[in-house]
Amino acid sequence: MKRVFLILLSATVVISCSKSGGSSAGKGGSKGELIPRNKSKSFVSERPYGMVAIPAGSYVMGLADQDFTNTPEKATLKTVTVSSFFMDETEITNAEYRVFINYVRDSVVRSLLAEAAGDGSGAGIGSFAYASKKAGTTPNAYQEFMESQGGRDGYDESKKLDWSVPLKWRTSDYPDAQYAEILESVYLPPAERINNERIIDTRKLKYAYNWEDIESAVKDKSRGAKYLKKESIAVYPDTTVWLKDFNYAYNEPLYDGYFWHSAYKNYPVVGVTWDQARAFCNFKSKLKSDYNESLKKKKQKAMSFRLPTEAEWEYAARGGKENATYPWGGPYLQDDRGCYLANFKPKRGNYIEDEKKGTYTYTAPVKKFPKNGFGLYDMAGNVAEWTESPYNNSTYQFASTLNPYLSNQAYREPRKTVRGGSWKDIGYLLMTGSRDYERKDSARSYIGFRTVQDIPEGTAKYKKRTN
Fold this sequence. Notes:
The relative contact order is 0.16. By secondary structure, this protein is α+β, with helices and mostly antiparallel strands. The chain folds into two domains: 41-93 and 235-467, Alpha-Beta Complex (paralog of FGE (formylglycine-generating enzyme)), CATH 3.90.1580; 108-206, no CATH class. It contains ten helices and 14 strands. Residues 4-26 have low confidence and may be disordered. This is Serine/threonine-protein kinase pkn1. It comes from Chryseobacterium salivictor.
């Protein structure tokens, strides 16, 4: 009888536990079924500002028209498939790139001030101390732990900058002598100044970031910090390209003011190397990520921004048209009114021909020529554009037909594919299938770039930016 009582008592305990709601088999009402906690709503991808959605599709990649030069750049045609992505509707402009430059400048200055400010006591430079050093700030448990461990590689929570305190740039507003000493250290030394003009020493504007060498990690079947590549890139564009590219031309006005003058704010940035373009992509990704982290209601982590692959660029340039010779589709460089459809060199030695036909001496402001079927401007002419892809004469032969990209050569190959032709090129280089290249450490007065962002395959639709 005693044994029967113990069995009944055990059964009661089991039943009571199963009704207590503490089971990990699923939330209440699941009846023991495997039901994900996440709601089954379709994912909607938010379109970033200034970008357009390029739908997935297939196309015949390569130069389908007659190759007048008979060069090895022309490869065997083949059909490839490209996934959907967002792409900048215009090339990155001087105004957009200056946002990047100003961020790097302010980061360098704030870091120097924070190091000198110590514990943040006192007025003046003390207000620029690291956020964790300021009186009244209490580190949380995670911050205390990480500080006790010496921080983590690549980031130190204790050295988080306080961006809420505005910088003082006017010499009359400097709060103290120590602040003045630090600010003056980022300007050109007096001995190097021209007409005693105080300008920022652009050699000190370096952007530091990490990226993962995924190809090497996959090859080694491993992951870890040893596959992180640390970059420190001087990001100010090379303004001397206007003189170096044209030794026997008077381009001094562009050398003096093309990048910083407000008259050129909506012109495409030039003088940017492949590495600098990639650094800009990282900054753009960080900008969005930091904003999402600042929200009380967290958003889905945004996909990173990057340079387009060669296959993505060509697909986007065609604008959804089959065998499009140019982004506008047809084989002609003028419309039915005789106006040019892109900014390029129409004739030998003639960069303008006729101002009424819409041509420019050098680069043109973005959005001055018609957009293609996908809503992209200047996919032909104005400035040629960097792509992520390495350059190789036989690329088309051994690259995949699904999202073609030579990832194992992308970083190591010094030659990068450049697409689209520029303001100084003839019409042939504006063709959607025409290829060119430049070494990644080269900056040119006729090469710019635009960025892309992946769209997850599970995206049901796109929506406009809401912030």
